[in-house]
Design brief:
single chain; mainly alpha; 92% helix; rod-shaped; transmembrane helix
Amino acid sequence: MSNLGRYQEIVTESARAGGVDKLIKSIESGAVAKATPGLVGKGVGLGVLLAGTAGVAVIASKRAWGSLRARRVAGDAASADLAGLVSDSESESDELERDAE
């Protein structure tokens, strides 16, 4: 054993693995293998969450557009009624002026 401590351990492990590059690839593949199941689970969970959120957003927007259309139709009907009342009122005013003459 030498007095190099952790450095000596790394040198020894890299010699066993067949070189520093092979040791690094071994460490990387082990890290990926450990992280992948967690990432897949998180990805599925996030996908479900986003799909649910998108569904709620679609439903809410459809309701909002329906409400907007209903208001627009009601406003158009009210405008038509008002225009009719104004037209009738003008007709009556014209008739009263003719009768007064």
